[in-house]
Structure formats: C-alpha cells, structure tokens
UniProtKB/TrEMBL annotation:
Membrane-crossing segments per the record: 32-53, 60-80
Bilayer topology annotation: Multi-pass membrane protein
Gene3D superfamilies from the UniProt entry: 1.20.1280.290
GO molecular function: sugar transmembrane transporter activity
Residues making up the signal peptide according to the UniProt record: none
Protein's UniProt name: MtN3 and saliva related transmembrane protein
Record-level GO cellular component terms: membrane
Keywords attached to this entry: Membrane, Transmembrane, Transmembrane helix
Length: 97
C-alpha cells in the first residue's frame, strides 16, 4: 500500500514541475490564478500538517514537495504581478509628463 501511495504522490507532485519551470524560464504568468494557487497552497499545507500528525510518510512527502512547488508558483505570480503593476504605473507616469 505504501508503494502505491508513494507512486501516486510522486506522479501527482511531478505535474507541478513544468509549470514552475515555465514561469521561471519565461516570466509569463498569463492564465495563472492567484486565488486558486492561494487556496490550493493553503490546502496542501494543511495536508502536510495532517500527514505529520498522522505520521503518514506518503502524505508527508507528497505534500511537502507539492507545497514547495505550489508555493513557488504563488510567490513568483505575486512577484511578477507586482512588477508588472509597477512598470505600468511608471510608464503611465511617463506618458503623463
């Protein structure tokens, strides 16, 4: 049973790697929902806490890695949205001059 859980955790968690890599490589966050990743990351964190309390290794491993990847997407999205807003503000101020 633990092997199946670990394989399921690995394959599900692995699905986040292409998204993280694409954001890092392209700096493009079009289509990334900040609210979805906020709620999802919170949920994964709670699963991680549950796994730790239940001493369930597949849940701990899967959610620790998934949390790291989802949190990375969340942080990059926030950072890049703020950067875009600042650039728009600066270019708007330059146009007003």
């Amino acid at each position: 049973m633990t092997i199946i859980g670990l394989l399921a955790a690995f394959s599900t968690t692995l699905s986040f790697v292409p998204q993280v890599w694409a954001i890092i490589k392209t700096r493009n966050i079009d289509g990334i929902s900040l609210s979805m990743y906020s709620v999802f990351t919170s949920g994964v964190f709670l699963w991680l806490i549950y796994g730790i309390l239940a001493k369930d290794l597949p849940i701990i491993i899967a959610n620790a890695v998934t949390f790291s990847l989802a949190f990375t997407v969340l942080c990059l999205t926030i950072r890049l949205k703020r950067k875009a807003a600042l650039e728009n503000e600066i270019s708007g101020a330059n146009l007003a001059q």
